[in-house]
Amino acid sequence: MAQQADLERLATISRPHRDMINVMPLQTGSILTDAARRALVEFGDGYSVCDYCQGRLADIANPPVRDFVNVMLPEFLGSECAALTYGARDGVFMVLHSVTKPGDTVVVDGNRHYSTAVAAERAGVELMAVPNSGHPAYVVEAQQYQDVIAEHKPALVILTYPDGRYGNLVDAARVGEIASAAGIPYLVSGAYAVGRMPVRMDELHADFIVGSGHKSMAAAGPSGVLGMKAKWQDIVLRRSSLHKAKEVECLGCTLRGVTLATLMASFPAVVERVKHWDEQVAKAQWFSAAMEEMGFRQLGEKPHRHDLLAFETQALFDISQRVRERGYYLYKEMESRGIWGIKPGQTKALELSTFAASRRQLEQVIAAFKAILEKYR
Amino acid sequence: MAQQADLERLATISRPHRDMINVMPLQTGSILTDAARRALVEFGDGYSVCDYCQGRLADIANPPVRDFVNVMLPEFLGSECAALTYGARDGVFMVLHSVTKPGDTVVVDGNRHYSTAVAAERAGVELMAVPNSGHPAYVVEAQQYQDVIAEHKPALVILTYPDGRYGNLVDAARVGEIASAAGIPYLVSGAYAVGRMPVRMDELHADFIVGSGHKSMAAAGPSGVLGMKAKWQDIVLRRSSLHKAKEVECLGCTLRGVTLATLMASFPAVVERVKHWDEQVAKAQWFSAAMEEMGFRQLGEKPHRHDLLAFETQALFDISQRVRERGYYLYKEMESRGIWGIKPGQTKALELSTFAASRRQLEQVIAAFKAILEKYR
């Protein structure tokens, strides 16, 4: 039985660390802009974007959902049309559920996100992975898609671009050429690309691209986007036979509220920030070099081309073996130094993102690691 | 091509009418509580509820998602377990996709929401409707489920409780007895019940209940809840074979952000407000009587037992035939009087909800209608 005190505790949930230096891969791309913070308050109430709806989310003129979905998003994604989703995974499932049938095979990269496997399971299709090169670079070679496609004749090809663990960027355009030559539709799963770095579906020869509002578009969650070639619109965005204004795969409307408002409000800043991606890459490489100087080892591609970074941190693990808090010491030490994003308990390998933090803040992160190594020497 | 000015307009979207008297059926149950407004700001950033996640949304201890999902929600819903969804429709689809197979028949009430039809289409099942009694009451008789079930041997029975247009409340417990006797699983679609009025799945002899955060639980959207009997957990909430912590029908995690924070923060107030449902019903009946005194006709059940109300408003339609703004005059007249929720263009029949407005505010609504009738006499 829930106690009254437990119940009342819900009313005061808070997030005291939200202004700390954030290096958590999940979170660095979705810290809200000031504009999104204003939209959050304006559109907080349920169904807030539906004030002037005439029956169709993507046709709402105020706020300008119509222009956002039908003009701005396709331009940004390099797609011919777009839809709003609950997140990247939901876009993947919408495509799977529309263009494949149970029993089909889908070819995917070996670094795919767990949710791609779960979406495939939900759609009843089997995934066939193009393997990565293993430790330490975990590289997936685009060219390898050719043989796997030829062997398995899949209904769909998926590439995670970049993958969420190592931040590796496969040659997505080459995969697109291969899929295209084989006549197989191709989906770019870009939860960590769309909104962070320049990425255009057309330039990657893709049929679909999914992005995540709450991963990389400075938006509240759940929110996401799906871009596609026009030829898929009648399949993936097919309308209900009874309710002609409603897309079947969207169950009518998807983002009916505040998360869409934040996605839209941040969009101008997101369009701008992807133009500065080279600065992000330089920052990630500089940070990686500093980490390696300390004796940690960066996994994944080198030189690295994304802010998602994984490191082997044996020295931090060694410490965990002889301190009272075991693996939790690192999380606590970092938190006490104002740094957020170390998974409690994790020490042997760390996944970090340099996207949100400035160089100055990342210097603090490096100094923190140094101080911890020193303290427990 | 999107103009720069259009793009920048996204950064300043606003909702100037959000503090007006609100009678829009979609919106009256999801105006945020003060606690939810605080949570909105605290948890605005993407993936904000995942700070302390160890791999499973429903297991997060801080904020107390675990207690909320596993203890408080089941108690509130009268269910044996619960899950977080993007909304009522998404819960309906999760159940359809798990307990039916393409080609199956599902029995539903004739007043069902459009999204139930779209979800059925997405799942490849055919809906068979228990008809309503037609104009003016549109009543669905629970007993009629018996014959329709006997004839069609459905894989699932659904009842919309109440329906979203007339606010009629079918004898849901009787439908439960009938479905139960026939051995057919039974889903109560309670987007306008859960969070507004007392409703318990167990008392309705139901297997499933869905609720909507952004319709009736004072939460931001998209958000929803799904309650069920424990025996369905392994089917509807089955785990991925590869990723054991993740539910297939949820694609892993659903409400990964602010909408869950508002749902939780408002929950204590929601638990409290359903205890005062009798006051809401009395207010709705009082309002309905005042509308009928003006010559409007209430559709749906009488005496009415829900705040969702539909009226035939012929006199307002007659005015629209002779004014310059045609049907839009009513929306404008009401808005200018501080009243929000009249659909632009609608005059012949109006759907209103008395849930959010006080009696004093509803007196203003009645006075507004009177003044408009007088002005255009």
Contiguous low-pLDDT stretches of chain A (5 residues minimum) are: none
Helix content of chain A: 25-40%
Strand content of chain A: 5-15%
State the end-to-end CA separation of chain A. Answer: 48 Å
* Rg of chain A, Cα atoms, Å: 22 Å
Encode the helix/strand succession of chain A as letters: HEHHEHEHEHEHEEHEHHHEEHHEEH
Largest sheet of chain A: 7 strands, mixed
Say what oligomer this is: homodimer
Write the layout of secondary structure elements.
The structure is a homodimer of 377-residue chains.
Chain A: H1 4-9, E1 21-22, H2 34-42, H3 65-77, E2 81-85, H4 88-99, E3 105-109, H5 114-123, E4 126-130, H6 144-152, E5 156-160, H7 172-182, E6 186-189, E7 208-212, H8 213-216, E8 224-228, H9 233-236, H10 258-273, H11 277-293, E9 297-298, E10 308-312, H12 314-320, H13 328-336, E11 339-340, E12 349-353, H14 359-375
Parallel strand pairs in A: 1-11, 3-4, 3-5, 5-6, 6-7
Antiparallel strand pairs in A: 2-8, 7-8, 9-10, 10-12
Explain what you see.
The structure is a homodimer of 377-residue chains. The first copy, chain A, has 377 residues and is of the alpha/beta class. Chain A contains 14 helices and twelve strands. Chain A has helices spanning 4-9, 34-42, 65-77, 88-99, 114-123, 144-152, 172-182, 213-216, 233-236, 258-273, 277-293, 314-320, 328-336, 359-375; strands at residues 21-22, 81-85, 105-109, 126-130, 156-160, 186-189, 208-212, 224-228, 297-298, 308-312, 339-340, 349-353. In chain A, the strands form three sheets. The first copy, chain A, has a seven-stranded mixed sheet, sandwiched between helices. Chain A has a three-stranded antiparallel sheet with strand order 9-10-12, covered by helices on one side. In chain A, helix 4 runs parallel beside helix 5, helix 6 runs parallel beside helix 7 and helix 11 (277-293) runs parallel beside helix 14.
